[in-house]
Amino acid sequence: MSNLDEQRVKKLMSYRWAVWGVLVLAYVIVFFHRLAVGVVKDELINDFNITGTTFANLGSTYFYAYMLMQIPSGMLADSLGARKTVTIGTLVAGIGSIVFGYAPSIFWAFFGRLLVGLGVSVVFISILKIQSKWFKESEFGTMSGITSFVGNLGGILAQTPLAIMVGILTWRTSFAVIGAVSIVIAVLCYLIARNTPEEMGLPSIAEIEGREVKKSSSQGSGLVKGLIKVISNPRTWPGFFVFAGFFGAFVSLTGTWGRSYIVDVYGISKVSAANYMVAAVLGLAIGSIVIGIFSDRIKKRKLPMIMFGAVYVISWAVLVFVNGGKPPVSILPILLFLLGFTCPAFVLGWACAKEINPPEIAGISTSVVNIGGFFGAAILPPMLGKVFDKFGGVLPPVELYQRAFMYAFISAVVGFVFIFLVKETNCRNIYEDK
């Protein structure tokens, strides 16, 4: 390799972190909005005079929009490119957050939440697309874990820091400020991010690795064929249901009802209760990076998913069944951290999606699996909300939350069962091996 080539490779290996870094900033915003409404539950219910089910539906609006946009997101990432897709999406999310913050009625709150969901829905798939172009195949699991780790920092911001911010600025101003920050990040994405190294005159990762990648059509017909190829591949679907079961349960706890559970069952203050939820979100962040690195090191996908998934189900069992649904408060932080740490068994589902489908449609294949998590997160919290509306004031808090969280436990069990149907890829693309 000539000195010039060495310099170009060195520049690629350096600049890819700037590209990934600015996009992952947008992903922090994604996670913030994903979990934020749980912290302002009482304010929303009081300001808009809504029921628990309506509140849960307001939170789920984000997930419905996110879910419905996943296949379009994959198509946009594969055609329009990650740079423009994330820029436009983050801009829309910023506007939505401002609308939500200043909503004069529940209709506008729903509309703002819908805009946020539509906007942020394109970010993660675009990051996975960027990873497939700027990082080596052997780094994909690790980078997916690191991406989830950094994104989860947004989830941590949506707990105690948001509770403190709301106390100082009010919930409305807080969401307006987050909206303004989102718009700034959108501008940075456009200025810094690039879809491929070749756009900067740099060699491709495929070229460096000495492999050939088929050119894919960026036109509608090629994308539709790619979508059909992915959804007709039976190996695609186990990861979908793992993500649905695990993430639906996790969001029901950390993004909707968890803080209220800590307050109502243990009599802990709202700000302190948010700290308990931080333990779960921090666990998810750390677990995401650990399982990605572990998987890439041992060159296995399925075994780490089974190991983490088993502990995740056990953690839910302890939360729901030990001491009638009220585990000792002394073990609660550890239990919540462990629950979060093992939940990201689903992270490897994204890597598997890429590895059991054609590499040239990585955006579409990961987007189909990604729908699963947001399908679970959209339908499960309102199911719990109906339990609270029906039995709230009738059952004591411990029994009420135990009955509601039983749905989350069942969801986790269903997700775990589907792990056993995941196809082992040994961390390489096996599409041609079918």
Automatic annotation (TrEMBL):
Keywords: Membrane, Transmembrane, Transmembrane helix, Transport. InterPro entries: MFS (IPR011701), MFS_dom (IPR020846), MFS_trans_sf (IPR036259), OPA_Antiporter (IPR051337), Sugar_P_transporter (IPR000849). It is found in: Cell membrane. The chain crosses the membrane at residues 17-36, 48-69, 81-100, 106-128, 149-169, 175-193, 239-262, 274-294, 306-325, 331-352, 364-384, 404-422. GO terms for biological process: phosphate ion transmembrane transport. It holds the Pfam family MFS_1. It is a multi-pass membrane protein. The keyword DNA-binding does not apply. The keyword Transit peptide does not apply. Its main location: membrane. One of its GO terms (molecular function) is glucose 6-phosphate:phosphate antiporter activity. Residues 19-426 form the Major facilitator superfamily (MFS) profile domain. GO terms for cellular component: plasma membrane. PANTHER family: GLUCOSE-6-PHOSPHATE EXCHANGER SLC37A4. This is Sugar phosphate permease. The lineage of its organism: Bacteria, Bacillati, Bacillota, Clostridia, Peptostreptococcales.
